[in-house]
């Protein structure tokens, strides 16, 4: 089935439509739609999506029977703010997920032109911070759903309010009467909406362009707070500018509670929005071009007019069995699980007891089909009233398929029209005696007979899934050639196979029918034990035409890849997933060249590829190690068994000077065109990193770390300096230059100055620099050179203003006189220290 794009409405303003929020909103009332800040701002919040739901007049006049107004999206940033964004900008992101979104400028999309909402904001980038909450299971029974009703006049709707004679009593009567009666009957008493508080007409400055603001205003008036089973229903005047026909948040269970507003007390719209609060999506329909569900097809949103979750057009039929099952309201005794061939007698779905649904799971696609029988009785009595049933919906057996997202139930057309007749074709029931194809496994459904008490339906297989798949390849004239044996069944997992001249087709209920051509992929699967081995059943057909003459096939337990230059090799589990994320065979690693090897240290595994390897351990995950100097250095260190341990990041290149690096448990390896692959570890690595890594003042490492120095010290040489560390002084940078050279002449850390105790500081007067050491400091300027200053002389010089004082920079080292006194010359004078008194004076 190829689903065609949904037709877009040509309306300029959306009149009488509803916006459905299609994500499970947290039940905190968000009153305002924030603009999100200036372009370039970043917001974090939940992705909320919705569709424009038609009112009865709009749906009746829509082209092709589909009044779909386009998917709308918001990022709800908190209890008081939301930003609308173009849906195309968040395609592929799951509704309900928490996103970090960088915003651009305003966009006047369909939400503005069709739904009257505030402009959206362009999305510059979006990332998932947290996945969507799967929600809680539905409770077995609830005595009542507590509803608070607020009559609210939005901004700019005074004339509509004057024309709308609806009272609070009318809305309360609708909820406590037909709406509650409907849900009590459909749920067996598990759902009972009951008004517990009501507040008569009041005005607000809020408008419908930001629905959160309406709910916030209503909640404040009523003193309503969210909670389990608590619902806030707002009534706005019919025709209020910019307001939808109805809007309801979608919950995840019967006790979620929820928010809604409506423009009508019609049972169809109030019960519909309440269904969204309970967790239901739409009941839609599928129309295909002269076929039940193959070829060119269109999903007609809300097109299941039998059901309350379809369009709100008038009478309300029995809740279909797909939706009832989603809410957990379908007793097992009322469902017949059928496998072809089978016959089942269906009681009318409105009967309230007996077998009211047949459920069939397609063994090829996994789709779930539901058969139910509708008669003009009970909740569906209106089917027999030609005045009420103006769409001419048929009594009879109908077929629906469960779906996901916004259209949670899809009604199939058992008597499809060509595309040109879709607009007027509302006949969907199965005619008695006609065999109708359903699903992908060759199953056909036939209504044998039907009457007031029951309809008898037969589900039978026309051809096997293996035969269907063979025909789809072209039969004997196709790539498999003629069959060489009869179909063999009774394999593991109730599977079947058939062999052909140039391959086989394997089928199981869980994996469907898959083509396995003869060749190296099939041979490798055979060596693994066919479907009985670790790979299990194939889950895709073999695919060739990859880079380097490659082919692959996916199986339950992994994949097999082959190319002209590599053998057929199995790739499984986390290693396969990481290889896939790296671009499969088109990525940096190329094809696998050897089988995965496990049993390494710490429960690890690795697999070799053309241009590197993947290494995996429970503690470090799966990491890419590209072939080259970094990998070679890790190898010399002993791979994962050495001091570096397992890689904790992927190989990364593209650094300055064509550099690459990789982080490991015990350190990192860096390489560039001008420096060898070198290990950097511990406190020295951390200090180098804090200085900017290879982009900082030191550049790349040029030699390995050396330890065993005085006082337990270590050092490592870099392109433009070194890092020194001792237990007493920590790790310090010593940039290459005159200060470092002068320290070297004193004997490095073994000399009088000892280890550095702080970083070098430049930008002093006259372009000078200095660095403190344990035994003093080294000061340098372009005109005076580098000289150490220590002890009492250094203290006195500091009191006089250091290099900024009258003495300026030192111009020579300390000199010991014959009497034991010491002196040191500076640019502006000399300091003399008395050996006997330790007094220091200026000469």
Automatic annotation (TrEMBL):
Keyword Lipid biosynthesis included in the entry's annotation: no
InterPro entries, sorted: LGFP, MetalloPept_cat_dom_sf, TAT_signal
Species lineage: Bacteria, Bacillati, Actinomycetota, Actinomycetes, Geodermatophilales
Annotated region (Disordered), positions in chain: 49-70
Biased composition, class Basic and acidic residues, residue ranges: 56-66
Native organism: Modestobacter muralis
Domain of life of the native organism: Bacteria
Keyword annotations of the record: Signal
Signal peptide location: 1-35
Gene Ontology molecular functions: metallopeptidase activity
Coiled coil, from the record: none
Gene3D superfamilies, sorted: Collagenase (Catalytic Domain) (3.40.390.10)
UniProt keyword annotation of Transmembrane helix present: no
Protein name: Peptidase M11 gametolysin domain-containing protein
UniProt xrefs under Pfam families: LGFP, Reprolysin_3
SUPFAM superfamilies: Metalloproteases ('zincins'), catalytic domain
């Amino acid at each position: 089935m190829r689903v065609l794009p949904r037709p877009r409405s040509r309306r300029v303003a959306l009149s009488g439509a509803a916006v459905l929020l299609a994500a499970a909103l947290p039940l905190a009332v968000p009153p305002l739609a924030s603009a999100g800040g200036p372009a370039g701002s970043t917001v974090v919040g939940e992705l909320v999506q919705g569709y424009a739901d038609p009112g009865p007049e709009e749906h009746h006049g829509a082209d092709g029977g589909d009044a779909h107004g386009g998917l709308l999206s918001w990022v709800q940033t908190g209890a008081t703010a939301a930003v609308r964004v173009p849906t195309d900008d968040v395609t592929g992101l799951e509704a309900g997920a928490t996103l970090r979104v960088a915003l651009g400028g305003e966009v006047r999309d369909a939400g503005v032109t069709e739904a009257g909402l505030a402009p959206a904001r362009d999305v510059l980038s979006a990332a998932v911070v947290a996945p969507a909450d799967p929600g809680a299971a539905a409770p077995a029974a609830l005595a009542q759903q507590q509803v608070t009703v607020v009559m609210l006049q939005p901004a700019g709707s005074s004339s509509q309010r004057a024309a709308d004679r609806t009272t609070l009593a009318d809305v309360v009567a609708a909820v406590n009467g037909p709406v509650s009666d409907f849900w009590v009957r459909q749920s067996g008493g598990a759902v009972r909406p009951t008004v517990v508080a009501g507040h008569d007409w009041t005005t607000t400055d809020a408008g419908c362009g930001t629905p959160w603001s309406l709910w916030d205003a209503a909640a404040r008036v009523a003193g309503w707070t969210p909670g389990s089973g608590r619902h806030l229903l707002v009534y706005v005047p019919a025709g209020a500018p910019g307001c939808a026909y109805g809007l309801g948040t979608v919950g995840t269970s019967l006790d979620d509670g929820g928010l809604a507003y409506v423009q009508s007390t019609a049972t169809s719209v109030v019960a519909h929005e309440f269904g969204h609060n309970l967790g239901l999506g739409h009941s839609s329909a599928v129309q295909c071009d002269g076929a039940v569900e193959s070829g060119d097809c269109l999903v007609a949103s809300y097109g299941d007019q039998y059901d309350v979750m379809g369009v709100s057009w008038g009478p309300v039929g029995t809740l279909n069995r797909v939706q009832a099952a989603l809410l957990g309201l379908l007793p097992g005794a009322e469902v017949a699980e059928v496998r072809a061939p089978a016959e089942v007698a269906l009681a009318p779905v409105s009967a309230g007891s007996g077998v009211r649904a047949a459920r069939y799971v397609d063994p090829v696609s996994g789709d779930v089909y539901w058969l139910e029988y509708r008669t003009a009785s009970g909740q569906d009595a209106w089917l027999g009233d030609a005045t009420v049933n103006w769409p001419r919906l048929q009594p009879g057996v109908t077929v629906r398929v469960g779906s996901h997202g916004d259209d949670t139930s899809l009604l199939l057309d058992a008597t499809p029209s060509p595309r040109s007749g879709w607009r007027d074709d509302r006949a969907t029931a199965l005619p008695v005696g006609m065999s109708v194809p359903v699903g992908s496994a060759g199953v056909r459904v036939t209504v044998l007979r039907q009457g007031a008490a029951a309809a008898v339906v037969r589900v039978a297989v026309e051809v096997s899934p293996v035969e269907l798949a063979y025909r789809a390849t072209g039969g004997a004239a196709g790539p498999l050639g003629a069959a060489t044996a009869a179909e063999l069944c009774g394999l593991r997992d109730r599977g079947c196979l058939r062999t052909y001249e140039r391959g086989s087709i394997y089928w199981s209920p869980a994996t469907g029918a898959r083509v396995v051509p003869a060749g190296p992929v099939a041979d490798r699967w055979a060596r693994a034990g066919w479907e009985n081995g670790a790979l299990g059943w194939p889950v895709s057909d073999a695919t060739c035409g990859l880079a380097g003459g490659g082919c692959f096939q996916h199986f339950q337990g992994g994949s097999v890849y082959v190319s002209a230059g590599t053998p057929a090799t199995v790739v499984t589990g986390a290693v396969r997933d990481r290889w896939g994320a790296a671009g499969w065979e088109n990525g940096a690693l190329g094809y696998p060249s050897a089988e995965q090897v496990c049993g390494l240290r710490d429960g690890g595994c690795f697999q070799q590829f053309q241009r590197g390897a993947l290494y995996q351990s429970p503690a470090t995950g799966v990491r890419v190690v590209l072939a080259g100097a970094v990998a070679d250095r890790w190898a010399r260190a002993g791979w994962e068994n050495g001091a570096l341990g397992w890689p904790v990041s992927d190989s990364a290149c593209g650094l300055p000077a064509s550099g690459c690096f990789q982080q490991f448990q015990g350190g990192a390896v860096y390489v560039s065109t001008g420096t060898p692959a070198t290990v950097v570890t511990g406190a020295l690595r951390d200090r180098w990193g804090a200085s900017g890594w290879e982009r900082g003042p030191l550049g790349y490492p040029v030699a390995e770390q050396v330890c065993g120095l005085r006082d337990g010290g270590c050092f490592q040489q870099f392109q433009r300096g070194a890092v020194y560390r001792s237990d007493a002084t920590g790790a310090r940078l010593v940039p290459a230059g005159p200060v470092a050279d002068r320290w070297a002449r004193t004997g490095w850390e073994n000399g009088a100055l000892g280890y550095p105790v702080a970083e070098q500081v430049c930008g002093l007067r006259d372009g000078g620099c200095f660095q403190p050491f344990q035994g003093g400091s080294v000061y340098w300027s372009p005109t005076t050179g580098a000289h150490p200053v220590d002890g009492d002389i250094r203290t006195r010089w500091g009191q006089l203003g250091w290099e900024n004082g009258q003495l300026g920079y030192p111009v020579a080292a300390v000199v010991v006189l014959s009497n034991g006194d010491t002196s040191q010359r500076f640019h502006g004078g000399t300091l003399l220290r008395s050996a006997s008194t330790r007094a220091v004076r200026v000469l």
